[in-house]
Design goal:
Elements: E1 5-10, E2 15-20, H1 33-43, E3 49-52, E4 55-62, E5 65-71, H2 77-95, H3 100-105, H4 107-117, E6 118-119, E7 122-123, H5 128-134, H6 139-145, E8 170-183, E9 189-203, E10 209-214, H7 217-223, E11 234-238, H8 244-250, E12 253-255, E13 260-269, E14 277-286, E15 290-299, E16 307-315, E17 321-327, E18 331-335, E19 340-348, E20 354-362, H9 369-372, E21 377-384, E22 393-399, E23 407-421
Parallel strand pairs: 8-23
Antiparallel strand pairs: 1-2, 1-5, 3-4, 4-5, 6-7, 8-9, 9-13, 10-12, 10-22, 11-13, 14-15, 15-20, 16-19, 16-21, 17-20, 18-19, 21-23
């Protein structure tokens, strides 16, 4: 069982719009949601599921809105939350920004979407590309479209329309990995992992079947091959188009892709990551009159790789003023509203080369560093044509009954995620 009703509320608990799917929960029960939430927040025990009597509230917050589902049954909570996040995704596709104003300005379309997204408490058509075929933001089209619902809605393949044609058939595959890293003040890596996604842009005619092969360690073990570099993926999550039974039996990623852009899969690799960009810092204060900062940046990745748009964010005291910078490359600036010195290097060359940034700030005579804490240095970057995990697309087979030839293109990108280096102040 899933949701009985879905509500969209503002931050004051006012119902902006709602849809009663089953009628087995009194709609007035939503009045208890905000008081329950405020009570929990005061106690510091905020919970994603709250109950009032035998009614349960499952909720998420997005910008200045609460999306709340109610139920009085032992519902599948993960299904309800997946649905609520899908509602946010679909509304964002339609309105660009999902906030109170976009709900108020698009009541008719929102009601139409809520009717199609769920039926009697069960998720139905949740792909925004398919919904946009027959729910438009023009009221005149809205009525006309009702007379002919796309066959996609009743197809087994609900995420792709029939009759798609392209003059040139191509598939673009982006393998994007984000590095999460925490280094302590002594230079030791405290925690690290890699979060990856495989994104597709498909421009293929007809109803093709695609088979994607990765250098997956479990696949190599099944087939008795152990040569070459392999990776062990955890927390793998697929788009609904992937045949899960096939993947579980022989690790083949087989699917009929959505048209256009989509995220095929995401994964996590729990491994020790050597910092790709190493940061050393020395921060000195002089009689509470000024502070001097020296930051050294050094690349530690493959020699043929180059990091683009490197941004080193160094925290400075909130009362700092009169900034002065000197850099061996790139440029630095003071961002007072965020209490940061930001050093930007457009292109960070090959491994082993060091770059230096020196900054000087004036300080008032009053000392307040004990109150501010010691926030870490953070680094943003992007390295094209490179994945830190070594994951590779080994093959992409495209099978379509017309037998046309299609070109697959693969691109690899490594970027910073939550990349933090603590420093000794």
């Amino acid at each position: 069982m899933s949701a009985s009703a879905v509500f969209v509320l503002d931050l004051k608990g006012k119902v902006l719009i709602c849809r009663n799917y089953k009628g087995d929960v009194d709609m007035a029960e939503i009045d208890h949601f905000l008081p329950l939430l405020m009570t929990q927040e005061e106690e510091g025990l905020t919970c994603p599921i709250m109950s009032h009597g035998n009614v349960h509230f499952l909720w998420i917050k997005h910008t200045n809105l609460y999306l709340v589902a109610t139920t009085n049954k032992n519902s599948n909570a993960s299904l309800v939350y997946a649905f609520l996040y899908k509602v946010v995704e679909v509304f964002t596709e339609y309105f660009t920004e999902l906030e109170e104003e976009s709900i108020q300005d698009n009541f008719v379309v929102v009601y139409e979407l809520l009717d199609e997204l769920m039926d009697f408490g069960f998720p139905q058509t949740t792909d925004s590309k398919i919904l946009q075929e027959y729910i438009t933001q023009e009221g005149t089209k809205l009525e006309v479209a009702k007379t002919k619902v796309p066959t996609t809605v009743t197809n087994a393949v609900s995420w792709r329309s029939e009759g798609i044609k392209y003059k040139k058939n191509e598939v673009f595959i982006d393998v994007i990995e984000s590095i999460n890293l925490l280094v302590n003040a002594n230079g030791s890596v405290m925690s690290s992992d890699i979060v990856g996604t495989v994104k597709l842009k498909t421009m293929l005619s007809g109803m093709p079947e695609l088979r994607l092969g990765l250098n997956d360690r479990a696949l190599f073990a099944l087939t008795g091959r152990d040569k070459g570099k392999t990776v062990t993926m955890e927390d793998v999550k697929f788009h609904q188009c992937v045949r899960l039974s096939r993947f579980e039996s022989d690790r083949t990623i087989s699917f009929i892709p959505p048209d256009g852009e989509s995220e095929l899969m995401s994964y996590r690799i729990n491994t020790h990551v050597k910092p790709l960009i190493w940061i050393e810092s020395v921060i000195e204060k002089f009689s509470h009159s000024r502070v001097e900062i020296m930051v050294k940046a050094k690349g530690q990745f493959k020699k043929q790789s180059v990091a683009n748009n490197v941004e080193v964010r160094v925290p400075v005291p909130s009362d700092a003023d009169s900034p002065k910078f000197k850099t061996s490359t790139g440029h630095a600036k003071y961002v007072p509203e965020k209490n940061l010195a930001v050093w930007t290097i457009k292109s960070f060359p090959v491994s082993g080369k060091e770059f230096l940034m020196r900054a000087s700030f004036g300080l008032p005579s009053v000392e307040n560093d004990e109150m501010e804490g010691k926030p870490p240095i953070t680094v943003n970057f992007e390295i094209p044509y490179f994945t830190v995990s070594g994951i590779q697309v080994r093959y992409m087979k495209i099978i379509e009954k017309s037998g046309y030839q299609a070109l697959p293109w693969v691109r690899y990108i490594t970027q910073s995620g939550d990349y933090q280096l603590r420093s000794n102040f």
